[in-house]
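Query structure, 390 tokens:
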């Protein structure tokens, strides 16, 4: 069964140009004119115009999805280009939606793009979802993921889910009438700070392509009402082993969102529900700091300052300021290598891990230890512009 209504299909029509454009669809009985009209009538909302949103939007547009909504409030950053293929080098600094809308129009001018330049929130999600048939989740954080799921359950829209981390990905179709939702699988978010983001842990550039194309495939199958969607199945993608496994999922009768007696009857504060994570959590450790310019002045004037680099060895290879390398995880067993009588300045990439290192050392009795504010990135900005940033 297709998620597109008969009335919607009746209102769609293809011009001769569109017939030619979609001819490789039209000659397949599984799509045909009926299927192509369903695609044209379909309204798909992509949450995020980043790693997953890029291949998703490009393929859904090329396939002839009539109305493509996109929600994003971000700006294209240089580090996005390794995987967010809808954006070009010339787009760095531009709004992601501006860049994405342009690319989609270039691929298929028959697609109507609705750009929502906003952060998806409990205040706007239900209203945004109402005008779409399918929601595709291309977000990279837990609060938005739970928000998308709950809003899908509440509005009765299928949630085409995908997530990626380093070399691994997941995909499924949640919140259909008969199938489980994200909360049937994960009723509670992981403990705050336990799961690093792509910015913290990295991600193989092709992985969002792999998973995003799986999501696009699922969205198109739902529109056509053909094939076996990933309802009740969690697809696990391991790019390193190039293995695809699948877990059976059942609808949980006790699920707080889609169970028999749901406790989630309206959208909640998802930031609070998931706890403050990542960089915000790191910043909450308050330790003495030193500015990059001040450290530079001390080093230049020959002061006896010891620079401690708590990043990983592969990060040290990208760039370093000659600091003594002890990765944060090794610090407890290697702290004896440090001289507690010397002034120590610890640094990492952006200041989060080294704040933890300073906190640890202070508790271990080090009195003269400070955190380099903003890490090696701030050093590159303020002291040495030739240093590569990552
Ligand atoms: Zn559920």
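Result returned for the query:
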């Amino acid at each position: 069964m297709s998620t597109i209504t008969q009335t919607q299909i009746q209102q769609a029509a293809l011009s001769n140009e569109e017939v030619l454009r979609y001819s490789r669809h039209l000659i397949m009985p599984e799509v045909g004119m009926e299927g192509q009209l369903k695609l044209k009538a379909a309204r798909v909302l992509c949450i995020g115009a980043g790693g997953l949103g890029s291949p998703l939007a490009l393929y859904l547009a090329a396939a002839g999805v009539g109305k493509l909504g996109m929600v994003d409030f971000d700006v294209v950053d240089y580090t996005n280009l390794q995987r967010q293929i809808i954006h070009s080098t010339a787009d760095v600094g531009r709004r992601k939606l501006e860049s994405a809308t342009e690319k989609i129009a270039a691929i298929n001018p028959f697609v109507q793009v609705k750009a929502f330049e906003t952060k998806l929130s409990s205040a706007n999600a239900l209203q945004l979802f109402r005008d779409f048939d399918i929601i595709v989740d291309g977000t990279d954080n837990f609060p938005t993921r739970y928000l998308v799921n709950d809003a899908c359950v509440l509005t009765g829209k299928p949630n085409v889910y995908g997530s990626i981390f380093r070399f691994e990905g997941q995909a499924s179709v949640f919140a259909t009438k008969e199938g489980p939702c994200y909360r049937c699988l994960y009723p509670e978010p992981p403990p705050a700070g336990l799961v690093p983001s792509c910015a913290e842990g990295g991600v193989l550039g092709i992985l969002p392509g792999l998973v995003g194309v799986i999501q696009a495939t699922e969205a198109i199958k739902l529109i056509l009402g053909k094939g076996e969607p990933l309802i009740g199945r969690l697809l696990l993608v391991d790019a390193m082993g190039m293995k695809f496994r699948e877990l059976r999922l059942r609808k949980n009768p006790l699920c707080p969102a889609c169970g028999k007696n749901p406790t989630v009857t309206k959208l909640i504060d998802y930031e609070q529900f998931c706890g403050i994570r990542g960089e915000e959590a790191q910043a909450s450790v308050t330790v003495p700091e030193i500015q990059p310019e001040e450290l530079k002045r001390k080093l230049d004037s020959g002061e006896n300052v010891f620079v401690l680099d708590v990043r990983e060895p592969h990060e040290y290879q990208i760039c370093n300021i000659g600091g003594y390398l002890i990765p944060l995880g090794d610090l407890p067993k290697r702290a004896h290598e440090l001289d507690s009588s010397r002034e120590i300045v610890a640094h990492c990439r952006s200041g989060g891990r080294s704040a933890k290192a300073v906190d640890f050392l202070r508790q271990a009795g080090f009195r003269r230890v400070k955190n380099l504010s903003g890490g090696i990135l701030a050093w590159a900005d303020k002291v040495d512009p030739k240093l590569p940033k990552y």
